[in-house]
Amino acid sequence: MKAFQTAVAAAAIFGTTAYAIDIKINDQESIKHAAASAAFNTMGNYTGNETGQIPGAFPTKWWEGAALFESMITYWHYTKDASNNAAVRQGMNWQRGDNNDFMPANYSAYIGNDDQLAWGSAALTAAELNFLQDKGVPTWLEMAENVFNDEIKRWDPRTCGGGLRWQIFPYQAGYAQKNAATNGKLFQLAARLAHFTGNETYVDVANQAWDWSIKSHLLNTETWSVVDTINSGKNCSLSGDVWSRNYGPYMSGAAVMYNVTNGDQKWKTGLVGLVNSTISTFFPSKYGGNILSEVNCEAKNNCDSNQKALKGMLALDLAATVRAAPLTVFRIWPKLQGSAVAAAKQCTGGNTHTVCGGRWYEPKWDGSDAFEDQLAATNIFVANLAVPKPGSGRH
């Protein structure tokens, strides 16, 4: 049996009907209802807690388990709806592996560094938000630190002056690439561990990853754009398209380091630059400037399943940025609000008229019922609960 509520019960938690999402963006209970509806549809795609299935497993996209569980942990924290917690805890612990570092034997042959870091991020979110752990197993913090320790051992100064490779093993396609998704996640994890533990080792690694990203030109400090990848087999040349997943970790990590260092100018400059670049890139003026879009594929209607999930991850990173660095609230808050209102208009599909599409700038459901679109919608609603409002004093 599944551990989460029925669609009607999900809506009933917040005293509203189960059909369509009519969001009042300045009403916390209305946002919670929207989040509950989207979370229900998201978890409806998860079968790991059913008899005969493998908890936490998304066989062809293992990292999506981490993205799902991190989303549901954050959802629980800001709504207090614990109906998914048992499934999340089961899945996280099932995938932690023999060494408690999210390198399970069933997947270790093809796990990438970015995949493992995604699970480390989910574990650290569980620690930060005090998500209950089972007895007799390592803490969420210990698991996140184990991931960090694995990753930093793979830092490769032999090519391109440093950095992490995208893939772990030479036989994997993409081993030659040192990409922003991986190195940004290492930076973000180190920054968050520094904030959570006070350990200077994490501060040092955050600086190391950041400085290398600039030196290698993954991060452009003139435009604060983020390049997708460096190819160590082709003279460290830059290539790739613009993706939101590359901006969020660097931006939110810079916000955390700004917090850790009590406003050091290095981090303020990077933070402000990345916030401005992220907003100008992923909130296109042609859609009004307040609606989040995965610009490289949405307009062409050719986002693959991975790409559909990315902007939802950015939404959570935007909220995390404000929590760590409240000076960004007036830039970010209207963008999250506008995106949530737009996303709600997309959540009118399926038999329940609550299934969410992916092109939020369109005024009605675009026909997509993909798991990743439901996850992205959940995240934009939760981000509006997670971001401190201007003058609220809530962090």
TrEMBL record:
Q: What is its EC number?
A: 3.2.1.101
Compartments (UniProt record):
Endomembrane system
> Can you cite a GO biological process for this protein?
fungal-type cell wall biogenesis
Q: Which UniProt keywords apply?
A: Glycoprotein, Glycosidase, Hydrolase, Membrane, Signal
Major subcellular site:
membrane
Quickly give the catalysed reaction: Random hydrolysis of (1->6)-alpha-D-mannosidic linkages in unbranched (1->6)-mannans
**A single GO CC term, please?**
endomembrane system
| Any one Gene Ontology molecular-function term assigned to this protein's record | mannan endo-1,6-alpha-mannosidase activity
Pfam families membership: Glyco_hydro_76
Q: Does the keyword Cell division apply?
A: no
Record's family? Belongs to the glycosyl hydrolase 76 family.
Q: Name it.
A: mannan endo-1,6-alpha-mannosidase
Q: State the species of origin.
A: Aspergillus wentii DTO 134E9
